[in-house]
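Holo prediction — manganese (II) ion.
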Amino acid sequence: MLRFNDVADRILEYSPACDLALLQRAYVFSAKVHEGQERLSGEPYLVHPLEVAGILVDLRMDEVTVTAGLLHDTIEDTLTNEEEIRRLFGEPVAFLVAGLTKIAKIEFTSARERQAENFRKMLLAMSKDIRILLIKLADRLHNMRTLQYMPEDARRRVAQETLDIYAPFAHRLGINWMKQELEDLAFRVLKPGVVEELEERLQSQRKAREVYIEEVIGILSKRLADADLQCEVTGRLKDLFSIHAKMESQGLSLDEIYDVIAFRIVIDGLANDVYLGLGIIHSIWRPVPARVKD
Ligand code: MN
């Protein structure tokens, strides 16, 4: 279980001058007002704001945002109010916590038009201060990580909402690891059978694919280096959700999906160096017509 000291140690790594006393006070206050409350997992409620703060630290957020993360459910779920938060923790923290409370009051339903409307309201809240949305995303991520404790119908509703609203927001903000984790967790809830089948099939070829990735990285690195290009080559197996999304959207079977593997080549140089690199790659593997985008 994450402890306050872990959060404190990690924020100090990227923000040595941060106001630890503020964080400490928020932690103690959150513990006090949530006392006696439990998560569906049976754990003390405090675990949740602490994990949310931990995710915000993963995102290297500032002390005000992490403090607001520790307090994010206090106005909504405890006897405290915005005034008290403002008095104890100052305006910047109170602004964020109050903003989150307003988002929490937006009622999400599965109906398409309600979603579009809610989407706009979220955007509106976001445009006031992007940090509100980041805390909301951290909140949703921890809720998704602990979704197994919810009843089945609620679990499906939350997972669908995550796919429709939160994963696209994470994508838009460029937080790819979070987008992928949200999609993966939601996908497992919504289509457990498909996930199981895909995992089984991908698993059986996993080792061979990993060997293949290493081989290709070796070839690319050597050939690009031979041409005196400064480059960095990485490769990965694509995540389940994006493979499935492609199968669905293009009506393909797993065997017909080319890109269960992806490579990324970053070339340090001018445009002509990049085109030179692209030319070298195309001389090793013939490009598929109409699939090459400049
Ligand atoms: Mn929460």
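READOUT: The chain has a mean pLDDT of 89.
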